[in-house]
Amino acid sequence: MIKIYGSPRSSAGRCYVMLEECGLQYETIPLDMSKKEHKSEEYLKINPNGKVPTLIDGHYVIWESAAINYYLAQKYKPELLGSTPEEKGHVEQWNIWSMVEFQPPMVDLLIQMVFVPEPRRDTAVIEKSKVRIPEKLALLDQALEGKEYITGSQFLLSDLNLASVAQIGLSLGFDYKSFPHLTKWLEKVKARPSFQKVAAKG
What is the tally of structural domains in the chain? Predict the structure, then answer.
């Protein structure tokens, strides 16, 4: 059986959603980060980065959430990668953008506001993130204008990965009302059974 290390509220969350989209059975292995279980000698043997998620499928081990989702799509549900070279190219374009451009300022702000004690917070990082995040949201909103999903009329892997990042902004208190196309799209994606099931896991 497939094993997934990390809780649904971590970066592993998007992998949980992908596993549900693929209709796969899987075993969850949460790690107590406060006890540094992700830095244990045993865990470092399978993921030397000491981070989550890590997925084990039989004897195959893979880490990095975007790579995990790509692997799962390739093996179990390739239709989520697109049907033409052009569509597949755009799926990969948005997958990369979600990790390289969209997620970093979200995570930077999340770390400062949730995990760093107030007296030690880096105001420069906070202010920079508060500028960059709306810029990224505006770009995504514009790209979604006139579309059901980011590449057109079909839900694909790029929508899953983008939505997993967009949800971070909501948890940080960003108001998406000024981004109507993004809001409509995100509500539709979050209503999918896969997202609903993972959200219920807490």
Answer: 2
Predicted confidence band of residue 125 (pLDDT cuts 50, 70, 90): very high
Looking at the predicted structure, is the pLDDT value of residue 112 above 80? Answer: yes
Residue 101's CATH number: 1.20.1050.10
Distance, CA of 133 to CA of 139 (rounded, Å): 10
With bands split at pLDDT 50, 70 and 90, how would you rate the model's confidence at 24? very high
Residue owning tokens 């990224």: 136
C-alpha dihedral over 191, 199, 103, 84, to 10 degrees? -40
Dihedral sign of CA atoms 178, 111, 103, 183 in order: negative
Average pLDDT over residues 155-160: 98
CB 15 within 8 A of CB 65: yes
Domain with 49, as residue range(s), is 2-79
Q: Could you tell me the pTM of the whole model? A: 0.95
- Distance from C-alpha of 184 to C-alpha of 188, rounded to nearest angstrom: 6
Asked if residues 102 and 137 have their Cβ atoms less than 8 Å apart, the reply is no
52-65, pLDDT tens digit by residue?
Answer: 999 999 999 999 99
* Alpha-helical runs (H) found in 7-156: 13-21, 41-44, 65-76, 85-97, 103-110, 123-144
Residue 91 lies in a domain: yes
Closest CA to 178 of 126, 133, 148: 133
CATH of the domain at 73: 3.40.30.10
